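Q: What would this chain look like folded?
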Amino acid sequence: MANENRSNPDLSWKGVYKVGGICLFVAGVVPFIFLIFVILLGQTIPVPAQKALEEPTTPTYLYLLATLGELLLMPAGIGLYLSLKHVKKNAMLIATSLWLLATPMFLTSRGLLIALAQISDRYLDTTNEMMKAAYLASAELAIEVQSIYAYMALILLSVASIIIGSVMLKGVYGKVSGYMVIAAGILTIFTPLGVIIEVPFIILFSGVILSALWQVIVGIKLYKLG
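A: My prediction, written as structure tokens:
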């Protein structure tokens, strides 16, 4: 009976599974689109402070796109929790709490960067070198703060993914998906360190890409549960 329960999530949440699956799928697609635009537009990541003030349009739209994907992680996390809580409820409760905490931290970090577009005109219009230096210092601080928030969110999301992946090994998603989620979480958790020691962007982004891939695959499976 225990094995049967583990393979059959509560179907009274079918509507949530569908919405969560769609959200997880789209959240997984967004990083691929983000990476394509970063390469095509030659955008430096992290965004240099001076460029964020002088040419704010590109980074603003890129991070608005990232914000969309990160916002969709919230309903996706709820869908994952409901579809796996019958396997290990306590583990999924902890993982979902970390997952949901990561989202507002992501949104806060993106907001700091997008806010720089609001002072761009004043930076470009002023002829006072002291004022320019003050705007630039403010931009550098905002970028550093947003990076710290993003790193913390990424670590929380990675830990949550590792826990969710371990639960998936005994759930409806299958062991392949479970191991993929665990591997993505382990790779991604080192991304902040990679930024600090200036690892090449493509290598740095590999964990994020693997995370995006499992979100697409599991998103489809979650939708099908509905």
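The chain has a mean pLDDT of 87.
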